[in-house]
């Protein structure tokens, strides 16, 4: 969309140059055609700029929303992971506590 906007701006500049050239050469019929072309391309540039700004705004909004949701989901996943890790460590400690009396009975040679 940006390239379309740039292209329209470039064409508008060329049409203005053509009008100035036609005016300098005294070609009234060509000047009138150039003025119509300039009005057309001014509208086209304005429309392209509006479209570009609207798309940019929508894209920024989507990225912001994605980041907010993504950060929330990652935070929840990491929290869940650590909670399960803690629970597993508690189970391991419990198993070792159960095994401790038997381990004390074992004599090393």
Overview of this protein structure:
There is one protein chain. By secondary structure, the protein is an all-alpha fold. It is built from two helices and no strands. The protein has helices spanning about 1-25, 30-105. Helix 1 packs antiparallel against helix 2. The longest helix has about 80 residues, at about 30-105. The radius of gyration is 36 Å and the shape is rod-shaped. The mean pLDDT is about 90.
Summarize the structure.
This protein is mainly alpha-helical and 109 residues long. It contains two helices and no strands.
Radius of gyration: 36 Å
Q: Which stretches of 5+ consecutive residues score pLDDT under 50? A: none
Shape: rod-shaped
Order of helical and strand elements: HH
Helix content: over 70%
Number of strands: 0
Largest sheet report: none
Number of helices: 2
Which class best fits the helix and strand makeup?
mainly alpha
Mean pLDDT: 89
Strand content: under 5%
Distance between the termini: 82 Å
Task: Name some characteristics of this structure.
2 helices, 94% helix, single chain, mainly alpha, 109 residues
How does the SSE layout of this entry go?
Elements (H helix, E strand, L loop, with lengths): L1 H24 L2 H78 L4
């Amino acid at each position: 969309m940006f390239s379309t906007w740039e292209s329209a701006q470039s064409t508008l500049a060329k049409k203005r140059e053509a009008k100035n050239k036609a005016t300098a050469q005294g070609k009234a019929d060509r000047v009138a055609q150039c003025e119509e072309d300039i009005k057309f391309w001014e509208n086209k540039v304005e429309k392209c700029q509006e479209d570009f700004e609207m798309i940019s705004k929508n894209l920024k909004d989507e990225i912001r929303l994605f980041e907010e949701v993504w950060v929330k989901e990652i935070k929840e996943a990491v929290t869940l992971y650590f909670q399960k890790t803690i629970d597993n460590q508690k189970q391991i400690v419990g198993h070792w506590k159960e095994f401790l009396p038997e381990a004390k009975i074992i004599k090393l040679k």
